[in-house]
User: Fold these one by one.
Assistant:
Number 1:
Amino acid sequence: MKKIVRQPNINHRFELVSDSFASSDIPRVMPKHEIMEENEDGYCGWKEEFKHLQSLYEEKSDKQPDILEPIEFTYTTILEVPEIKISEDFNYGGIVSQGDIKHQIIDEIIFPDIVLPNKPSKLTSHQSYNIVRNHIKQNINMDVSKITSDYDFCFTVKKKVILSSPRHIKNEILNARGRSYQKRRYREYYVKEREVEVFEMTYFPKCYSPYTPIRGFTGRNHQDLQKNIDKYLKEIMEIINTPLKDCHYCDGMGVIITET
């Protein structure tokens, strides 16, 4: 390790402003140390015998090139990394990238960026919320389940459970004032399915009530983090996309998994 050291100027002198002034009594060049002196106040000025020539001269000097000087230093080895595994940049669905992943503060202090992908990693609750929400919206089977709440702060999925037998519904039709017609009117229809909530979430610190804040994904490293996210999404989609119907033996007290 070296540092740049600037060198002082040399050959300090006074040269005539114009060579036309030169004569036997007025030299073209005079060394600075011969015509200047320092007084008792520390001020450097022209000697008395040369002061009458001061206006004819200008001060000149020559620059020296900078030099490199070695810097002495000592270092202490606090950690040795036997092998650095180079991993691909983390990117999940365009929602979370490498720079969004959080690490322990001590790891960020000790390790260079190239090592951090091999250290414990985590995402925030909000980042995890966005990943799960986006994945469900892209992969949900709308014939089996449906999204009933889809906001930046809360998300809900309900399962469509096929009834063991269609249910007959008869509702009275009311007028604009909310009263019955003189001759009562009815609307009749059959319901073939019921809805059951199978997934809901919000995120910390929003914590929109009464939804459950999703925990941020974690991993031993970036690769493990990716693995844990994939595993969670696979499991949640199996729950959401598995078709169900009421058991006809117990009249809906239980459900049966149907073939897709």
Note: Residues 222-241 form the longest helix (20 residues).
Number 2:
Amino acid sequence: MELMQASVQDRGGVITQEDPDRVTIRTRLPAGVLDVAQLRGLGDIAERYGAPHLHLTTRQAIELPHLEAARIVEIARDLEANGTPVGAEKHEVVNVVACPGTDRCKLANIETIDLAREIDGRFFGRDMPVKVRISIAGCPNGCNNALLNEIGIIGRIRPVRTPGLCTGCGTCVEYCPEQAVTIRNGVSVLDESRCDLCGLCIKSCPYRLIQSADRHYQILVGGMSGRHPTVGRELILVDTPEKVIGVVEKVIYWIYRRARARRLLGQQLDEMGFDDLKQRLAGEFGPAQAP
């Protein structure tokens, strides 16, 4: 029992509080999705062990605060049985975040939930020299701040105009948040240097004259939030979920081998050889069609 207690205590999802006899337990919920029975189960576990409330975290997990440290093993067993096991928080791969994606969102360009679960199943909880946060956004709106994660994945799509059929109604102009579309000589014209490949003009065209092409995943590395927010650097564009998982695996291994502890990943990309990694992955996975 003492060995098991120590093992559970060391998990990243067990967070010590100011009161040394109390802990907060963070759960593992890839993409923040759980079924109704699991949600009820968390409420039951919270009541059973005296948690006064539940806390929704910014990384789509649920925390049970103010629990007795002496009962960690019992609580962990009940959480495991509920399908909401103890999560991660230390220098490891933590809860994978995702927006609703094409399952629910009208703006999404890619499926996100199953991809998040697959990435979670392969990499969650791996010990790392630095914390590795992964976020998947279905479109460049980036509602879950994929740009500010150690690994960010963003779904993008290229709009293609149908020659000779545009009515010049201007709907796509009104919808484009980047002001990348204008009407010239009665037809819409796209300034590709301003387009962020969100696909909103495709969805807005009332006559369905803007087609979609080159659906792909933009993968960025080294984003930082917190004290010094920094956008991650583009690593590669790939065109399938399988390639996304392959790239993520390579990046995680690269971080494990090259990163130094006590510094954020985004602070050490150059000395880790980011450009070499970028070139190597481009050769291995092949670039998706770039803008």
Note: The longest helix spans residues 241-258.
Number 3:
Amino acid sequence: KASGNYTLSILAHQEVAHSGYDEAMLMDPQGYVCQGSGENVFLVKDGVLHTPDIAGGALDGITRQTIITIAKDLGYEVVERRITRDEFYIADEAFFTGTAAEVTPIREYDDRQ
């Protein structure tokens, strides 16, 4: 990661913590979800695992790649693509992945469970 990415992540996390939230969801300039403030994000809809693609600005994380590999090995379809925030509202499940986060469920998004 570049030092500028760390600064953005720290500022985003501080802002959401001040508002009473645990984690930030970062968007790209077009409004698509990229990642959490320090971890990757996944959602599951209809048995398919979706995650923002690297070309769209997602972190190229080791834990992310491990989850993708394991999911494919277990026979799950994995789609790397641009994801809108609205898709998290209707997802069957969602979670963060990262070295520190490991695999952490997202129980609420924009005050929606």
Note: The chain has one domain: 3-105.
